[in-house]
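Appendix B. Chain record.
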Amino acid sequence: MTDTHGKVQLTLELTPELNQTLEELANTIGTTKSDVLRQAITLMQSIVTAKEETLTSTFSPPTLEALSELNPWTQNLIGVIRLDSENPEESYVNYLEEKYS
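Structure tokens predicted for this chain:
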């Protein structure tokens, strides 16, 4: 691993099948394999945080900042929506009406 411009270069060994899956995901969402891995790590961090918070009985949802780092395709996949801060209920109803009408 070497540090180049604030990033660490990593060598990763994958099975051909896993590499193919990684390439297909990257092509599907129009990004690089590195971005797919970064987004997967972000999702895993959210899952681990949620599990830890569930164990302590205090849950706070993932922050919008963390989710905003995800590719728009990934945000759509997990259901990230942005609600109007002044009237979130109406904003959510409008979202549902548009989606299911």
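Further analysis of this model is presented in Appendix C.
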